[in-house]
Amino acid sequence: MAISKEAYKEIEDVVGPENISDDPSIKDAYRSQYLTVVLPGNTEEVAAVVKLFNKHKIPFQVQSTGWSFYPPEYDFIFVDMRRMNRIIEINEKNMYAVVEPYVIVAELQAELFKRGLTCNMKGSGANTTALAMSGHGHMGLSTGTGDRNDLATEWVTDEGEIIRLGTVGASGEWFCGDGPGPSLRGVIRIGGVMTKQSTKIYHWGGPTKYALEGNSPRYTLPEIPANMMVRYYSFPTVEKLIEAELKIGESEIAFELMGFCPSMVSSNITTNNEEDFATLERFTKEVQGPGFMVIIIGNFPGDFEYKKMVLEQIIKETKGKSLKAVEDHNAEATLLFQCTRVTGSIRETFRAGGMFSSMMVQGQRYDLHVEWLEQAAVWKRELIKKGLIIADDGQQFGWGEEQGHLGHTEIFCRYNPYDADSFKAVHDWMDKVAKLALTGHYSVPVNSALPIEEIGSQACNYHIWLGKIKQAFDPNLVGARTGFSYVGADTAGAHTLVYPPKPPAKQP
Amino acid sequence: MSIEQYKGDMEMCCRCSACKHIPLQMVRNPAHSYACPSIAKYNYHAYSGSGRLIIGREALSKGINYTDRLLDIVYNCQMCGACDISCKYAMDMEVLEPISEFRMKCVEDGHANPALDKVINGLHKTGSMVPVKGKRGDWAEGLNLKNATKEKVDVLYHVGCLTSYDKDMQKLAKATAKILQKAGVNFGIAGDAETCCGGRAYQMGYREDFLNQAKKNMALIKKAGVKTLVTGCADGYQAFKVLYDKYNLKGDLEVLHITEYIDRLIKQGKLKLTKKVNLNVTYHDPCRLGRLSEPWIHWEGKKIPGYKFVFDPPKTYRRGTNGIYAPPRDILASIPGIKLTEMDRIKEYSWCCGAGGGVNESNPEFAAWTANKRIEEATSTGAEALVSACPWCESNFNKTLKATGSSLKVYDIVELVAKAI
Q1: ipTM of the complex as predicted
Q2: Is B70 an interface residue toward A (CB < 8 Å)?
Q3: Number of domains observed in the structure of chain A
Q4: A413 and A385 within one domain
């Protein structure tokens, strides 16, 4: 047993015997023999068990839907939020929805579509939590990034105190994250357990449900819904692409603008690897340079025509070229529901090799980092030549968030993590790209590719300050060392020195 | 076949959790977003398709650590394949096959479920997966049906264990016989000589017992000179059509589910549905008539060395695309007075009735829980009746309904057709 019998029994008394386990097979499924799994069913149970973790000094980690999970190598409690999966409220008047951590975007969005509304969907996909957490995605242009959508929040601190932040702390209403009532919007990202959150919701000009036909994996739409259009444009240069993207943002005509490489388009519209690689080969011949996908949704025919005309004008001015394959009905239909209901993350990242590793900058404009990631792309293509990663187009990509005021830049390698050479090559590449981000003064690299001291010393020693805040909330140092991992990204908590260092990534 | 051959597939699992839900663009109601009954009830990731693959992967590297919990995970799965279809919307990898192989490994290692062992012992003694009272062919008394083992027939109607022996289910056999007679089909039954198809034994993890049954059945079919087999049981259908073919035992036998055959007879003008059956219904796709009924794809190849998960020759995956979805719906549309309203989870992403994979026998409470979720979904459509095309579905729904006191009625599609002729 990873934890004492006494502690186990006390936790069991809170959640019930069916909701705690340290059986080896349960542990195997969470990829660690160090953990004990606890499945709380409500906020009070979360608070009670977190207090027990503190009492017994047992480190804990929290995850809701997750993607991959990389557990630490010490005994800990894994708090799986699966049982907390209720949509608490959809408030159409004040445009917010309150959800528990295991509500997935597909569930919330299904309810919102019926009301002519939608929510932000992170790039990780509709299979992940509807909490407004970190993560950028396809809808960033019109809905902002994931972490720009959180409103009032119910949060259990690392010590087990239930705090209601924003308006819900003062009035029982969930419409604002910053008050009246306490505001800790930055702090909640470094630990504790989010148990309920209000997320912004938006107008949706599309249908209340897509009239999909066919069977998996080849769903299609008999016709493109009224006033909707998908196009992919490539540009002669990155500068022209950025100019177009900015103009589209300024004119506020697009619902979605996603900086897809051709390989991401081909992955999304194809249903298997062989078809994907063949399609990419065709696309690569047709595109003239870097590109993006754009989705236009008109609220009525005149609005749609206006937006289309503006888009055509921008594309003309920036010498963009439409990828004809995307004008094909099935490709357009697939991209439409794929990118507004699913997001392409699984097809475009995992299918080819089983894993992807990514280097990204969130929240800053693409043009600030393009040089850095162009170099990353050069290094990536060397790995492709050596046959160490999936041979895609080798490109970086980026797009504007919040109508172009912010942005996202990214490059990833897809590979087989069980191939030792590939694994090493990708992690060496990550280190090299992260170092270039620092030495070239481009950005603070995320994803913990470098030791935190190395990053922090280049960025106002933020890790020391963050560590002090974390320690104030977590005096027993049992809290989520790797920060929230609601989606699977281990981020904020790792940016301190107050916890045992995370071991280097190990090949599975 | 062995779990080892699926090592690469199990390594491909990225824990995205798509296997837990129906294809995401098909989620229309949060109450009906789950595909997998096991994870929906038991919550730990181990009970999902992904968790099962990760456990299998660990077992390959360090051996199987048998615990009560592991066996609980292994046997609390209807083997319904919903995880497989949801995963393969996006991924190229096998999900249900390694899960099935893992269960077979448990049985081979002497870790069978006691309740399932009891069923298989019954199979050894009686050739049936259900308790035997009387003779297998008793239901046909007085119907004047041909004995296919003695007379030449065009079609062998394989009745199946539950329909043959369960007094409440024999009505399906009688309805089927009535329909085939009305259409003038030269068909027969094997009567007391009929034996279990072996499909449910396979789902439970008993490969050898399945193979024994398959060989017995194919010997009978060969001797009778039958070219076409029709069955009203979805489990039987999948066994004859898919599993027998997987093990190269099917030969050129044409296997049809009764819904396919009735649909064909209607479209050929040999069967006319004229009587009105005024009923608002919803249709439940049985797993083994729907997503798991796709023909087996014989493929042998090797992973191309290196980083991509691609094969030489390229592998075509069974993704649920070509299940039997249209014939039952076309039949319902042909019955005057029937109004069909679809549930949220249909066709390849249908929710299981709960009776598969031995769960009916090993954990009746879980079988009923799963059925109850489906009954709630059916009720939410406003339908008066839930129609299925498998006796196991009907039986499990009816048992559950009795406990809940719901007024929803359950029919097999052949009962409605019989009313309409």
Answers
A1: 0.95
A2: yes
A3: 2
A4: yes
